[in-house]
Structure formats: structure tokens, C-alpha cells
Automatic annotation (TrEMBL):
SUPFAM superfamilies: Thioesterase/thiol ester dehydrase-isomerase. GO terms for molecular function: fatty acyl-CoA hydrolase activity. Keywords: Hydrolase. Belongs to the 4-hydroxybenzoyl-CoA thioesterase family. It comes from Onishia taeanensis. The keyword Hydrolase applies. This is Acyl-CoA thioesterase FadM. PANTHER family: 4-HYDROXYBENZOYL-COA THIOESTERASE FAMILY MEMBER, NOVEL THIOESTERASE SUPERFAMILY DOMAIN AND SAPOSIN A-TYPE DOMAIN CONTAINING PROTEIN (0610012H03RIK). InterPro entries: 4-hydroxybenzoyl-CoA_TE, HotDog_dom_sf.
């Protein structure tokens, strides 16, 4: 079986966000469910963008949509584990933002998952993909780093 293998770009980390596994995040296997993980990633991504003054629904005047998502599961998490979700966005190449997330358990730094997704920006009038505006690219540059909330 071919597995997804992702390399997290540590040089492009924008934000670290603490989250806790909620009891409602558990699946019948008694660990963090894949559907709940996707929701936790969405929350961390929203916080990472907000730390740069950006909103997923208004990136330089354009809404965004998730075009694809890949997740490499690396370990388990369960209630009431505390997690740290690191978000990295490398320099823009094309008409999308490539967003990486790395999820680790706070107490032992063991990896839970690494994820990569592409956010495509859409023209609000036509709904067609557009290039990432320069102001969004600038806000995501490592030189624009803000203090990381929730640093462990």
C-alpha cells in the first residue's frame, strides 16, 4: 500500500495553536477521529491567518476554498490530550496557498499527524480562481512574524 508522506516546512512556521481533544472528538476506536482532526486543523488555520490580520473568507477581497487535503497520521491522541498545531505556509507559487499543519501532543511532543492542503482564492464576482494578492503574500512572509500564541 502506498502511503502519504509529507515534509513539514519548519522554516515557514507562522503560528502555533494549542487545542485540547474534546470528548466529542473521540471515535469508536477511543481516539481522535479523522473528522474531528479536520475540524481542529480548520480552527488552527483560522487562528494562524488571523494572527496575520487575514480571514479565510476575505483574503485580499477574495474568499478561499480548500481544493485538496492530504493527511499523514503518525500517532494517536485521546481525550483529554492537549495538542499543539503548528501552521506553516511556504512562499506562494501559483494561484493557491499551500498550508501545512503539524499536530503534536503537548506533554511528550509525539507527532499525531501532518497535513497539507491547498487554499484556492476565488474572484467574488465570477467564482474563478485568481492569483494570491500581493498584500496576502506579504502578510505571510516570515519577516512579518508575530509572536506565536500558545508557544510551548
Amino acid at each position: 500500500m502506498s502511503r502519504v508522506r509529507l515534509e513539514f516546512p519548519t522554516d515557514a512556521i507562522l503560528h502555533r495553536h494549542p487545542l485540547s481533544v474534546r470528548i466529542t472528538d473521540m471515535n469508536y476506536g477511543r481516539h481522535l477521529g479523522h473528522d474531528a482532526l479536520v475540524s481542529l486543523l480548520h480552527e488552527a488555520r483560522t487562528e494562524a491567518l488571523a494572527s496575520r490580520g487575514l480571514r479565510e473568507w476575505d483574503l485580499g477581497g477574495c474568499p478561499s476554498v480548500v481544493a485538496d487535503l492530504a493527511i499523514q497520521y503518525q500517532g494517536e491522541a485521546a481525550w483529554p490530550d492537549k495538542l499543539i498545531v503548528e501552521t506553516a505556509i511556504p512562499p506562494v507559487d501559483g494561484k493557491s496557498l499551500c498550508v501545512y499543519h503539524r499536530v503534536v501532543r503537548e506533554h511528550d511532543q509525539r507527532p499525531v499527524a501532518t497535513a497539507r492542503l491547498n487554499l484556492v482564492l476565488l474572484d467574488p464576482a465570477s467564482g474563478k480562481p485568481v492569483p494570491v494578492p500581493a498584500e496576502v503574500q506579504d502578510a505571510l512572509l516570515p519577516a512579518a512574524a508575530y509572536p506565536h500564541e500558545g508557544d510551548a
